[in-house]
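Data deposition worksheet. Section B asks for the primary sequence of the deposited chain exactly as it was used as input, without tags or linkers unless they were present during the calculation. Section C holds the resulting structure in token form. Section D is free text for depositor observations; keep each observation to a single sentence. Incomplete worksheets are returned to the depositor.
Section A, Depositor: J.P.
Section B:
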Amino acid sequence: MYKIIITCFIFVLILFQTSLFIVHEGQIGIVLRFDKILRDSNNYPKLFTSGLHLKVPFIDTIKLFDNRIQLMNNTGDHFITKEKKDLIIDSYIKWRINNFGKYYLFTEGGDITKAEILLKRQFNDRLHSEISNLQIKDIINDSHNNLTNNIRNFLNHGNSKQVIFNSKNKNEESVCNFNNMLEFGIEVIDIGIKRISLPAEISDAVFKRMRIEHQTIADNERMQGQQEAEKLRAQADYKATSIVSEAKRNALIIKGDSDKITAKLISDAFGKSTEFYIFLRSLEAYEKIFYHNNDLLLLNVNNNLFRYMNMPLFEK
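Section C:
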């Protein structure tokens, strides 16, 4: 009796243990029942997130997938540009599983190698197609990442074509219609080009031509700047000359008006006293004759010009 109880306890323990499974953080699990994916009421694969879950022992099989973003590096791939020049490109692809049911069927059990083989093949084919229509300078100057965006959109939403990949049996090949990677449960998150290498002879020629083109652009910009500066300088000089000329004209007009008024005032003042006017003019004449004049002058004092010098006012 004791042995039966122990046996039953061990059986229950094993049964309980085989009924539980753990999905770790960053993983997604699906359940296979009789080698078929367990689905929910909407006929979608039933997914199990991180945590402890129950399954039917000895019947259900658990398949775990990495739910994180995967990184695939491509190095040393050769491509031909529109000018028939050789390029060596290092790139990367970030992808993740978008549909675990499709991914499981496509990879025949979740073989990540099969997924990466197809992904790299489609990526290289599309990159060859894109680069063959571009020149080297367009590839290098692709500041808006149009090249990689086009390839990513193609891989996620591409066009129909046949894709052949090896199955588990090496003597057989599987054929499917390729529409996009989403049809295989794979979503391409990002594509980037890490490095573009050129053969030495091509590199020197390309950089020399780019240097000449940029120098030409710089010279044109500099010439346009100089022309614009000359234009602004000429406009400023013309404006300054016009302002000065207008100011001088206004000054002459004002001076003429003031001289006219001054002459009129003097004329009116001297008109009231002719003798005083003659006296002032005589004094001005004396100043011009005698001021700083070291020459010997012989003058006739009886001359009418010197009559004010003979007046009693000047005697003493």
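Section D:
The radius of gyration is 52 Å.
The longest helix spans residues 200-272.
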